[in-house]
Amino acid sequence: MKATASRPLDHDALYRAQHGRVQSLCRLLLADHHEAEEVCHEVFVKLFEQRVAPPAPERWLTRVAVNACRDRRRAGWWRRWRERGRELVEAEHAARGPTPEEAALGLEERQRVWRVFRRLSARQQEVFALRQLEGWSTDEVAETLGLSSGSVKRHLFRATHQLRAVLRGTP
Amino acid sequence: MSRCLTERTLMLLQAGEGSPEERAHLRACPRCAARHRALEDDLGVIADALRAGPPPGRAHPPLRWRAVGALAATVVLALGAAWLWHGAPVAPPAGGGDLGVAVEDLAGTLFATSEVTAAGEPLDEAASFDEDDELALLFEGQ
């Protein structure tokens, strides 16, 4: 009996539960607040188009978000370059105060970590985000990204090695 | 297991993997345990930095350099094309009169193509004669 296949989708509940997580993931993979919001919106529009719940909605959302971010990176690099100053200007006028995480971290260290993270390959970024930040297992990451477990471990090792190197001043 | 663990093995153990022997070594070896704690601390700092979001204004330095590279390559290609198109015929080639022969060949080929097309041959041949073919013929005699 496949009860989950015909289960109606509670869009609102899923949106409330998953929107923040998906938006953080998009922001991580795109490094741009505005684009992350746009892609996150696209992801939930796709979810709303689903009439029945996918077998695992959280993983479905993550897979769609990762693919959408990858498409956006391939297609829009010139636009991001053209609008590169916008983020700085808006950040200067932002009203929100620093979060505890931001307060604890030096801005310079955060910049160095992000700079190295942006230099990782798209796959390494995706693997690191899902494995270390989302807390997925190696097998879950492998299945979602269509990789073998060995490839996931390799990507994770290289990403971690490079990110640690910048913390220790040996990039 | 007496040898200390590699960095890769430590990362696997941190991810909840690794063999029972490696885990036993980690418990028994103070040096590897310290390295493991340092790895966890570093990953915590990295995760906090990434969760805090990209720092303002410096999100895409590699993209900027890529764009500058693309612009430079475009300029070089444009200059090269301009030199080929305008500069090459002015500069006398080493072969002396070869350029004249090449131009005659080019004109003859163009003329012949028109005739063939007019005579009802398939248009593909005329259509396939593009600027690249013209350039190739121009430099064939040099």
Q: Could you characterize the architecture of this molecule?
A:
The complex is a heterodimer of chains A (171) and B (142). Chain A is an all-alpha fold. Chain A folds into two domains: 1-95, RNA polymerase sigma factor, region 2, helix turn helix motif (Rna Polymerase Sigma Factor, Chain: A), CATH 1.10.1740.10; 98-171, Winged helix-like DNA-binding domain superfamily/Winged helix DNA-binding domain (Arc Repressor Mutant, subunit A, Orthogonal Bundle), CATH 1.10.10.10. Chain A is 75% helix and 0% strand. Chain A contains ten helices and no strands. In chain A, helix 1 (11-30) packs antiparallel against helix 2 (33-49), helix 1 packs parallel to helix 3 (57-75) and helix 9 (138-145) packs across helix 10 (149-167). The longest helix of chain A is centred in the N-terminal third of the chain and has 20 residues, at 11-30. The termini of chain A are far apart. Residues 1-5 and 85-95 of chain A have low confidence and may be disordered. With 142 residues, chain B is mainly alpha-helical. Chain B is 75% helix and 0% strand. Chain B is built from seven helices and no strands. Chain B has helices spanning 7-14, 20-28, 30-51, 61-90, 98-118, 123-128, 131-140. The chains are: A mainly alpha (171), B mainly alpha (142). Chains A and B meet through helix 1, helix 4, helix 5, helix 6 and helix 7 of A and helix 1, helix 3 and helix 4 of B.
